[in-house]
């Protein structure tokens, strides 16, 4: 599922240039010869992606070159007049200074100069623009790594370079190098014998250089506790310590490990039991994760932990190791792929840990067996994980790790476990970029799923899509909007056990509040998690609208001025949303949504906008009301668009057109209509679960498909249980499109008896049937008696509630109930009133009763 995309290949990007420029050793015919893997090696990767490499040149020389990935060009930086064993190398951004560390010993371990003692490692500072002086920075017996600091890419070159010198005796020095330009082009080091330097770290057993963020992480031990320190280097000033965080374990490592300080080809690979396999990953969204493996206790299982500093959690995973072709258990490689952290042990497992939302294990992917393979990586290859890339040190290739959309979709469709389906869906929706083809595949997959799973995956797809679009506009919304409907999950993952431990939140220095970028986002995440302990969950929950919606619907016909004003404001909000949806719809749509007035959905749309704005105002004080209005409006617009796209893609997938929305041709039902109806029912169920609004016209199209696909008793059962909603447009079309046969009349009657009172008042006049007459009679009696009550000015008059033995739709029963109430109060209902044909009312009621009982043959 994880693929490595080649960013650099030394054989393809460098060797042709070397042969063309005749920079390799010559054969007997004077032709350039190719180089072996040991003779041409990648040694470092700078912040701007430039790759430094070394090779054996002509006449026993050692050369250093650089490859620029932006213009895909190579350049020769420096040539040693003899063969040297290059440990480390770095060039400044202006490419005027080169820092190198070389071994002073031959491959046999003997000194090059045997007549006088020499240091084992020599660190040099070389002027290369043009080649001028060479300054010895350090001569020690331990290996030394060098790394130039890089200013921000948008800054102009400044006359001072900064160099980190990392010694294996646990000391990191920061050297300040001032330069002067002579004769317009000659760059010279100013006062090379007196270079200012300061010690930034010492007595550590692990250090990591964050190339992109220009940060130094290192670990020291204080009171038997490993403490992670972080120093931030700035482009225009010095450095400062910003973070000190106890990791909660004691150091057992005995050998120093340096991460991201280039690759030393002359140093043996550290044993995992002797050095600390730990790596820190950061993301611009403000996440900081510390990944480390535990010492191997037995060959049947392996344990590693991930500390999420931005959440204040430590998650420890124990993996049962299956039989593998690998001869021994190696330490895993931790890979940063942005939204996820990949933990890969070739031949055993591949885990994609969700760093953005690590609270539930079902948001992470745990793969084993044939699914846990990374192409073209095999278990014999040693690959170094850099800040944002991978380096194959043997073959001289650099990769970018990314998820393979095709393999992800194949895994999602083939998964049988709910947790795998859930994690794969979230990975596809939130991690992959918005892609019409990917969305189509996801929707097609959702169509074939049963509804017996533990998760409502359609609801997850809707919420995940809305969340991705919202945070792409502004990162401040990631803690305030829901990304999942799942709050808790305690299921099992085969072959993996895990535990969660709360840890103390990191304390940042006060200056961090004035910083921008990563540190500001990290501080915001930490503060948000602290607020969760004292406040309720700040994520918006739309299900609270259910009670408000019911109350608002009951006030729709109330004449209270305050209620009328509130109702008018809600409808105005809904109209704004629908107008935005109209302007965004660029493609031709198959399904005729948004083409009818749906008062209830418009109320729900406006109400959601109103409540979402109220929620955001509680937490986004600095954003401003206009921005909050825009965020809330866009969120609801995206919701309606998402549902429309789901329905439209389903219709296109199964080749349905609007001609099927015909009530008079039920005998021509296609099998595809059943699939589409089933899917629309699941979308409706997902929306009603969180009280989400639907596009106006959704209920009409849904019930028309229901009429075509379902037998009458099932259709009525769906209506009675609220799955199908008879709308005014649907009932109107029912009267107009169906004929007056006995079957059609029975069908109409069954639907009419189930429509809401507000809808019935508008459409009864369209149906020439006793039921229509019953409604007219009932309304006449009610109006008549209420008018009489007003004339009598009786304050004690009231209408008795209907009992369970009476039918609301029988006018005679209704009349009898009203007259009983009037008789109890000694009132004459027909005194001084207009003439009423009581016999007509009685006949209508009797005919309706016979129809209901199935005794009417004519």
Report on the structure:
The strands form 7 sheets. A 6-stranded mixed sheet has the order 19-15-16-17-18-33, with no helix packed on it. Strands 28-1-31-30-29 form a 5-stranded mixed sheet. Strands 10, 11, 12, 13 and 14 form a 5-stranded antiparallel sheet that branches. The protein is built from 20 helices and 33 strands. It has 858 residues and is an alpha+beta fold. Helix 5 crosses helix 11 (625-653) and helix 18 crosses helix 20 (838-853). Among the domains are: 542-725, no CATH class; 770-853, no CATH class. It is elongated.
Number of strands: 33
- Please identify the structural class as seen in this structure: alpha+beta
Oligomer: single chain
Note the gap between the termini. 69 Å
Q: What topology, given as strand order, has the largest sheet?
A: 19-15-16-17-18-33
Quick check: average pLDDT? 82
Number of helices: 20
Low-confidence stretches: 107-111, 826-835
State the major sheet.
6 strands, mixed
The fraction of residues in strands falls at: 15-25%
Shape: elongated
Rg from Cα: 37 Å
Q: Please bin the fraction of helical residues.
A: 25-40%
Sequence-ordered SSE layout with sheet pairings:
Blueprint: E1 2-9, H1 10-13, H2 15-20, E2 40-45, E3 51-56, E4 62-68, E5 73-80, E6 85-91, E7 97-103, E8 121-128, E9 131-140, E10 144-148, E11 160-167, E12 171-182, E13 186-189, E14 197-202, E15 206-210, E16 215-222, E17 225-233, E18 239-246, E19 257-259, E20 278-283, E21 287-293, E22 301-308, E23 313-320, E24 333-336, E25 340-345, E26 349-354, E27 365-368, E28 374-375, E29 383-385, E30 390-392, E31 397-403, H3 405-414, H4 418-431, H5 436-447, H6 457-473, E32 496-502, E33 507-508, H7 518-534, H8 545-554, H9 561-584, H10 599-619, H11 625-653, H12 671-689, H13 698-709, H14 712-720, H15 728-737, H16 742-752, H17 757-763, H18 770-792, H19 811-824, H20 838-853
Parallel strand pairs: 1-28, 15-19
Antiparallel strand pairs: 1-31, 2-3, 3-4, 4-5, 6-7, 7-8, 8-9, 10-11, 11-12, 12-13, 12-14, 15-16, 16-17, 17-18, 18-33, 20-21, 21-22, 22-23, 23-32, 24-25, 25-26, 26-27, 29-30, 30-31
């Amino acid at each position: 599922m994880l693929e490595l995309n080649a960013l650099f290949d030394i054989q393809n990007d460098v060797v042709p240039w070397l042969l063309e420029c005749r920079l390799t050793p010559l054969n007997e015919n004077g032709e350039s010869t190719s180089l072996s893997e040991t003779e041409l090696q990648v040694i470092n990767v700078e912040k701007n992606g430039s790759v430094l490499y070394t090779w054996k040149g002509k006449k026993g020389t050692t050369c250093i070159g650089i490859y620029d990935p932006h213009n895909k060009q190579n350049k020769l930086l420096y040539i040693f007049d003899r063969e040297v064993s290059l440990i480390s190398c770095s060039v400044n951004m202006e490419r005027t200074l080169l820092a190198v560390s070389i071994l002073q010993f031959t491959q046999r371990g003997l000194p090059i100069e045997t007549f006088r003692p020499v240091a084992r490692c020599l660190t040099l500072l070389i002027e290369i623009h043009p080649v001028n002086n060479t300054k010895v920075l350090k001569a020690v017996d331990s290996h030394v790594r060098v790394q130039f600091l890089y200013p921000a890419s948008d800054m102009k070159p400044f006359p001072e370079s900064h160099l980190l010198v990392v010694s294996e005796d646990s000391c990191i020095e920061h050297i300040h190098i001032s330069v002067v330009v002579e004769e317009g082009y000659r760059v010279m080091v100013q006062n090379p014998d007196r270079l200012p330097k300061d010690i930034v770290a010492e007595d550590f057993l692990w250090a990591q250089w964050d190339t992109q963020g220009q940060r130094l992480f290192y670990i020291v031990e204080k009171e038997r506790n490993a403490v992670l320190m972080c120093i931030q280097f700035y482009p225009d000033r010095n450095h400062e310590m910003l973070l000190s965080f106890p990791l909660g374990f004691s150091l057992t490592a005995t050998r120093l490990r340096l991460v991201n300080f280039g690759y030393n080809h002359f140093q043996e690979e550290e044993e995992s039991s002797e050095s600390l396999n730990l790596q820190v990953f950061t993301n611009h969204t403000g996440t900081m994760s510390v990944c480390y493996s535990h010492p191997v206790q037995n060959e049947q299982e392996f344990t590693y932990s991930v500390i999420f500093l931005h959440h204040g959690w430590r998650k420890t995973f124990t993996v049962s190791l299956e039989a593998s072709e690998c001869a021994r258990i190696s330490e895993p490689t931790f890979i940063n792929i942005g939204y996820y952290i990949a933990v890969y042990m070739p031949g055993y497992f591949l885990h994609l840990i969700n760093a953005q939302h690590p609270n539930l294990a079902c948001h992470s992917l745990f793969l084993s067996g044939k699914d846990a393979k990374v192409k073209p990586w095999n278990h014999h290859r040693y690959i170094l994980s850099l800040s944002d890339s991978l380096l194959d040190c043997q073959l001289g290739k650099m990769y970018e790790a990314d998820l393979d959309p095709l393999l992800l979709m194949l895994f999602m469709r083939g998964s049988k476990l709910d947790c795998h389906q859930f994690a794969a869906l979230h990975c596809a929706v939130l991690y992959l970029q918005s892609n019409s083809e990917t969305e189509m595949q996801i929707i097609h997959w959702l169509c074939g799923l049963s509804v017996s799973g533990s998760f409502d995956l359609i609801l997850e797809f809707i919420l995940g899509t809305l969340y991705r679009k919202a945070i792409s506009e502004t990162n401040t919304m990631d803690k305030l909007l829901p990304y999942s409907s799942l709050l808790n999950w305690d299921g099992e993952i085969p072959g993996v056990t895990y535990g969660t431990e709360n840890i103390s939140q990191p304390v940042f220095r006060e200056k961090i509040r004035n910083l921008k970028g990563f540190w500001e986002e990290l501080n915001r995440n930490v503060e948000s998690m602290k607020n969760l302990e004292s406040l309720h969950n700040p994520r918006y929950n739309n299900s609270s609208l259910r009670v408000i919606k019911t109350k608002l619907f009951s006030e729709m016909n109330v004449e209270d001025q305050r209620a009328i004003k509130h109702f008018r404001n809600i409808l105005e909000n809904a109209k704004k949303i629908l107008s935005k949806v109209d302007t965004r719809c660029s493609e031709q749509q198959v399904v005729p949504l948004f083409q009818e007035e749906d008062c209830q959905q418009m109320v729900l749309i406006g109400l959601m906008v109103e409540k979402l704005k109220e929620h955001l105002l509680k937490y986004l004080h600095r954003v401003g009301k206009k921005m909050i209005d825009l965020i809330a409006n866009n969120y609801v617009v995206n919701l309606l668009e998402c549902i429309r796209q789901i329905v439209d893609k389903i219709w296109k997938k199964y080749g349905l057109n609007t001609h099927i929305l015909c009530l008079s041709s039920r005998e021509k039902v296609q099998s595809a209509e059943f699939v589409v109806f089933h899917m629309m029912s699941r979308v409706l169920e997902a929306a009603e679960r969180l009280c989400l609004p639907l596009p106006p016209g959704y209920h009409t199209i849904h019930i028309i498909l229901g009429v075509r696909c379902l037998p009458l008793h099932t259709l009525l059962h769906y209506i009675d249980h609220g799955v199908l909603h008879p709308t005014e447009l649907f009932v109107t079309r029912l009267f107009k499109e169906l004929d007056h046969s006995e079957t059609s009349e029975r069908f109409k009657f069954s639907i009419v008896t189930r429509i809401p009172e507000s809808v019935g008042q508008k459409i009864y006049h369209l149906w020439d049937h006793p039921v229509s007459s019953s409604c007219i009679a009932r309304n006449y009696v009610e109006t008549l008696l209420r008018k009489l009550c007003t004339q009598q000015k009786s304050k004690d008059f009231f209408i008795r509630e209907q009992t369970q033995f009476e039918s609301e739709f029988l006018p005679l029963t209704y009349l009898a109930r009203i007259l009983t109430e009037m008789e109890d109060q000694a009132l004459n209902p027909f005194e001084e009133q207009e003439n009423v044909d009581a016999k007509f009312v009685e006949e209508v009621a009797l005919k309706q009763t016979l129809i209901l009982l199935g005794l009417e043959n004519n």
